[in-house]
Amino acid sequence: MNVKEATEKRRAYRSLDPVEIDDDLINDLAHVAQIAPSCSNSQPWRFVFVYNKEQLEKLFSTLTPGNKWVEKSSMMIAVFSTPKDDCVIKERMYYLFDTGMAVAFIILRATELGLVAHPIAGFDEEKAKEILNIPKELRLITFINIGKHSSEVNPVLSENMKLGEKQRPPRKPLSKLIYINEYGNKFIENRIE
Ligand SMILES: Cc1cc2nc3c(=O)[nH]c(=O)nc-3n(C[C@H](O)[C@H](O)[C@H](O)COP(=O)(O)O)c2cc1C
Q1: How many whole angstroms from 76 Cα to the centroid of ligand 1?
Q2: Which of 92, 123, 141, 165 has the smallest C-beta neighbourhood within 10 Å, fewest atoms?
Q3: Is the CB of 9 inside a 6 Å radius of any atom of ligand 1?
Q4: Long-range Cβ pairs for the range 65-70 (8 Å, 24+)
Q5: What is the pLDDT of residues 122-150, one digit of tens each?
Q6: Measured distance CA(19)–CA(74) in Å, rounded
Q7: Among 75, 76, 77, 72, which Cα is nearest to 17's?
């Protein structure tokens, strides 16, 4: 699978089947994050790879009600960082940007391996940090939930989420996102296949 194929294939699926988690998989995903770019090579990202059943159960209790589907994950990768570990240039903080790029690398590699890697924001940060022993001063940004896409739609999903299993949620047209040469000079959509 090339990068373009991985970007097309990647989806935030919510119907998950279990996958086997071993050191090779963790090493593989950790490595692609390790070589991601960052401002001044700051490498602000930190991860806890959680696949111990008891620990997963505890993390499930931190999820928002709409994220019950996460309970089928075989691994939750906690992603955390702090502005102190990355560039701040005239109030532009790069820690979330750089950590996001490392997360994107993990998601694309997981996709290439035939896995679902679905990031979430819906969890209780304080509670989850306590469970994982993450120091107070660090921000827990997301969990990347790992599984395999199930052919059976998870019954806990809302109707909208069920629809999302079948088709990618709509995107804004490029004419609303992209300008050429200066702001306001709209791009005329011409999709490259
Ligand atoms: C930062 C971030 C937070 C998200 N949080 C949640 C979440 O809490 N629950 C959920 O079901 N999906 C969550 N998603 C998934 C998005 O809803 C999904 O990416 C979006 O609807 C587009 O669908 P697609 O990724 O399949 O193309 C999150 C995605 C990102 C990048």
Answers
A1: 15
A2: 92
A3: no
A4: 66/122, 66/158, 67/120, 67/122, 67/123, 68/156, 69/14, 69/15, 69/16, 69/154, 69/156, 69/157, 69/161, 70/120, 70/143, 70/145
A5: 999 999 999 999 999 999 999 999 999 99
A6: 6
A7: 72
Task: Supply 133's token pair.
Answer: 């022993």
Rounded Cα distance between 16 and 74, Å, is: 9
Residue 193 has pLDDT above 60, yes or no: no
What is the share, in percent, of the chain residues with pLDDT greater than 70? 98
Predicted local confidence at residue 188, as pLDDT: 78
CB 88 less than 6 A from any atom of ligand 1: no
